[in-house]
Design a protein that fits this description.
Layout (H helix, E strand, L loop, with lengths): L4 H16 L2 H6 L2 E8 L6 H15 L3 E8 L8 H8 L6 E6 H9 L10 E16 L7 H10 L5 E4 L5 H12 L8 E4 L3 H9 L5 E5 H9 L3 E6 L23 E8 L5 H16 L1 H10 L2 E6 H21 L4
Parallel strand pairs: 1-2, 1-3, 5-6, 5-7
Antiparallel strand pairs: 3-9, 4-7, 4-8, 4-9, 4-10
Helix pairs in contact: 3-11, 5-12
């Protein structure tokens, strides 16, 4: 095989350009760009997950650029139909979602639900924490437990979307204490800011959310954590689990990523490969530790199977609450 003088000159000219490009990008970049759809307002848990994915993927050289779109409301039920209808078949589109969206779809009897998008990967799990304002007369979990057991309707509890993970946890607690979950005095808030203000101001008796949502207020001494809802204690957080305290209740808020409907199996697999490489990157591991997120990575068909079970379990809890 002979090489012409023209080709040799072209190859020589291209060599310095190739050498100047980042080696990580040349070796690993899987997507030039990703559209990250967040069916919630900026600043919340889903938005934080999407931004963390961006940081980890760009840090590892897996994606060149991210474009974000936030559409909040109704536990994801406002944004989800838009993603399904407007991003159909888009091979580089991903949506952040999670357990809150499962409950919201059931409660709202939505014609478009989490079943209409493509499961890519479950990423994280965050245990809930039950808090009271620092001025509360309820000094321990047993104090609050006794109040709920005596009269659930008199113990108002702030949390996220109605029917979401926080609401479901309260329903499980009330049921485990021998009362009707429908007696739960749950107060739903659209965002963490208003919920925090209501708890600190004593407008409600207690609050439930993921630990990261209340961490700043707890550290500042404005809230007192009484119990967490995970299977084990949160690393670095000296707060007992409900099971340690004698109540057989566990619950966690999982978050994951979904692809647009209409993508091919090959396109789905490419997105799964991206998330798998991101999960293995040190940058992602560092973010998990910083944010106290539990790593529960599960991808592709395995995630789809677990999601089916989760939907059925959530439907049962929602019926107990009178929301399904």
């Amino acid at each position: 095989m002979t090489i012409s003088r023209r080709n040799l000159i072209a190859a020589a000219a291209a060599a310095p350009i190739a050498a100047s490009l980042p080696r990580v990008a040349l070796a690993q970049q899987l997507f030039e760009s990703i559209l990250m759809f967040v069916p919630a307002a900026p600043g919340g848990g889903w938005d934080g997950t999407g931004r963390a994915i961006e940081q980890a993927c760009k840090g590892a050289g897996l994606v060149g650029a991210f474009q974000f779109e936030n559409v909040g409301g109704a536990g994801g039920m406002v944004g989800l139909p838009r993603f399904v209808n407007q991003r159909k078949g888009m091979a580089n589109a991903m949506m952040v979602g999670g357990s809150v969206m499962v409950g919201a779809g059931i409660q709202n009897k939505s014609p478009v639900t989490i079943k209409d998008v493509v499961p890519l990967a479950r990423l994280t799990e965050e245990a809930g924490v039950i808090v009271v304002p620092s001025s509360s007369p309820h000094k321990t979990w047993k104090d609050l437990e006794a109040a709920i057991k005596e009269n659930p309707k008199a113990v108002s509890v702030a949390g996220g979307s109605s029917g979401g993970t926080d609401h479901q946890l309260l329903g499980k607690i009330v049921k485990a204490l021998g009362r009707n979950p429908r007696e739960a005095a749950y107060v739903a808030f659209a965002g963490g800011g208003p919920a925090n203000a209501a708890i600190i101001g004593g407008q409600v008796t207690a609050g439930i959310s993921g630990y990261s949502e209340f961490a700043e207020q707890i550290q500042a001494g404005r809230m007192r954590p009484l119990a967490v809802s995970g299977n084990r204690r949160i690393p670095g957080v000296d707060v007992p689990t409900l099971t340690e305290l004698g109540l057989p209740v566990t619950a966690a808020n999982w978050r994951g990523v979904f692809g647009a409907p209409g993508i091919s199996t090959a396109q789905r697999d490419q997105l799964v490969a991206l998330l798998t490489k991101m999960h293995d990157a040190q940058g992602w591991k560092d973010l998990l530790a910083q944010r106290k997120w539990t790593d529960v990575f599960l991808a592709g068909d395995e995630f789809a199977k677990v999601l089916t079970t989760d939907i059925a379990d959530t439907e049962a809890v929602m019926k107990d609450l009178g929301l399904a």
